[in-house]
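**Paired protein data**
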Amino acid sequence: YDYVLRDLFLWAILMNRTDIAKVLLCFMKYRICPALIATKILKEYYKEADYGHLQDGYLENAKYFEQYAINCLDKADDYSTELACEIILQQNELYGYVTCLQVASDAKDKLFIAEPCCSQAMDNIWYNKVHPDQKLKRRRLALFSGIISFGLLAPLFVKYRESKEVRS
């Protein structure tokens, strides 16, 4: 059922039947990633379109789907910030195991990437398991001593996060 909806949604986007795509998107299990994929496709169509009114339609629909993805992410963020970060970084099987962040980056969806959840998810990737407290200015001395000692003193200064066990 999910694959059928995915195929129909992609067909509707590729055939510029965005009204049908909007309806299909409401019935899909995962909505953020397909909406971002639609923005990527419509932005590529925008680049290739020859006529002004056609370009305007592609750009307007691309903005709609980007805003739809942002609204879905905001609703998830209202519920739980950690959950929203997980949604952004979750690999979507239906679309070749890509993450929403990868699709948004490829589509150059700057408004989506500028969302606080995306920033936090990128911080989590960048700092991996380093405790967020490490980013403060008072820790720069500890960082400097770790660099000078070629990392030998780093385990004394760096605090790592406790890993949480996920129940299956």
Q: What stands out?
A: The radius of gyration is 20 Å. The chain has ten helices and no strands.
